Predict the 3D structure of the following.
Amino acid sequence: MNSSQLSRLIFKAFKLRGLQLKADATEALINVLTREDDVEGSLKLVLEELKDRIEKQDVKSTMIDLATIESIVVDLSSNEDDIAKEIVQIFDGFDCPKLQYDERNRTYKVIDSPPFKILGTVESRAQMYRDRLLLTQQRLLRSDVFTLHGFSGNASTKRNADGLPIHTIESLLGSEGTKVLFGMITQPEEGVWYLEDLTSLIRLEWAQPEYHPFLFTEGCHVVVQGDMVGDRFRVQVIGMPPAEQRDMTLKMMGISHVFGSEFRSQHLQAMQTLEASADNHLVIILSELHLDKPVVLSKFEKILEGFEDNGIDPFYILIGSFFSRNYFTVNGGKQFMTRAFGTLGEVISRFPRQRQNAKFLLVPGPIDAGSSIALPKRPFPAEIVAPLKNAVNHVAFGSNPCKIRLYTQEIVLFREDLLKKMQKHLVVPLKTGEGLPDVTEQLVDTILSQAHLSPLPLHVRPVHWELDHTLRLFPLPNLLILADRTEQFSYSCHGTNCVNPGVFSSDFSFVVYQPSNPGQVQFSRVPDV
């Protein structure tokens, strides 16, 4: 096929799809296709990728330029070796893609590295709560259990018209009988509880309500059933919005992943193939690796030694806190921490294979060095971890929380004494008894139902208002690491495996995760001998 025939083929194919090519883009595409054995098949792949980018709004014009064609060709030309180098992608909390719901068009879009201000405005705070409520509200709209009356997007409830009706607070005026409401629990003054949705708020009266085994706290999104008594809503039953499995969320949003525009959909199949055969790829996860305690560092050295001898190059996820006390405010503390990370680099360097090939990710804990107590917490200052970075070939430093793409899986890491905080701020007592989930399972059920890592009021756990999306679990991740100062646990729910790796500084416990077998984690511990 000569150049003139190719030009006509390209022009016709693009025109059928309502697209046009600039002259230099056409010339570049002709040069590429002339080197292909299957010209029509290659052109089809280019058009499919272009369609994918247009749907994700990465390409916003029907006039396609040279840069777009070059980018597509580079992505489609990636071979297995290129893709294998990209098996791990780390999303820092300060440049994490944001999933946003467009109320006007009733669509979702992924925004790469959205702009933000650390010192947000009052409008930022209001928008944060609005975004949270909107995402949960849309999940309720898709539920088979409920149907919403008076909410935006009501047209999408046709498929669940027989569900339990949920009303807006605004619509309660003059109504009688039992009603079901959805909103966020707030406490504007001590001991006075309100429910707030996107239309209004109403004072709640607790009438010894029935409730399911969740950890209900101020700031939680809840579904309540009750009736009006004067100007108050008397709560008879309180529950939480049903969680939604990851695959269902992605399907309803019409997207294949939430890893940003740099990760192309056509890479998914290649990554899935690599993932299924990655039997020797292990992820070692441990929390509270106290570098100021020699015995703790010696136990970590035993882990390195074991994998060095086995010829395995793991991906080490090391979660803070990395010190038993806050040295950042102590005179000479900065120099002490710098030396400690240098010592960690020396320990790893004793094992050449691990130093050269293994990957390390460090996530700070509550008392580690950082500029703010608000979430997300920034990674370690570069000057403190410089000795470690110089000693180890592959080391990265994440925020708290942070997200990882491992092959095709999304992993969320969060270090927080969350169970203690949630129990301290319960609205109704913890539900215990025979046959009921234990408190760690209730914690996981709550976090997945809320689709948020910190469903607590801001005075309890401050959050940067314009970075709240980094704490949202929407869609739910494949693996959620809730590193807490409690015993190890692994609990799978709604297609998400939630794991606490334990406290390494106390009992030298950690977990091993195998990406090729994502439903399983192995509890491990370094023996005393």
